[in-house]
Design brief:
The chain has 97 residues and is mostly helical. Helix content is 48%, strand content 6%. The chain has 5 helices and 2 strands.
């Protein structure tokens, strides 16, 4: 194996290990206790428009750090879809309610 090939493999290995160490998910980073954010989507979506707004999230979780909302909001559209909410819950082993 050439030196360049070894270097490329080493870089790929380091990147792979760092992704595994971080959990490989944006939901795993900087998250306070996820269990404190276990809720049924429909209970948070008070206006029943299929999205949980920042205001609805904050009203349901008054103790919430809004960075949590930003982490869950994968598409950064300032609203949580049903799919985003359940991806977050699955990533943290929370049961579908």
């Amino acid at each position: 194996m050439t030196r360049i090939t070894k270097t490329v493999w080493l870089i790929m290995l380091v990147l792979l290990l760092s992704a595994c160490h971080s959990g490989g998910s944006y939901h795993q980073s900087a998250m306070p206790d996820p269990a404190s954010y276990n809720a049924h989507f429909g209970d948070m979506d008070t206006n029943q428009d299929g999205q949980v707004s920042q205001a609805e999230f904050e009203a349901y979780f008054p103790q919430a750090d809004m960075k949590v909302f930003e982490i869950i909001d994968a598409d950064q559209d300032n609203g949580l879809s049903h799919e985003e909410w359940h991806r977050f819950k699955e990533a943290h082993g929370l049961k579908h309610q």
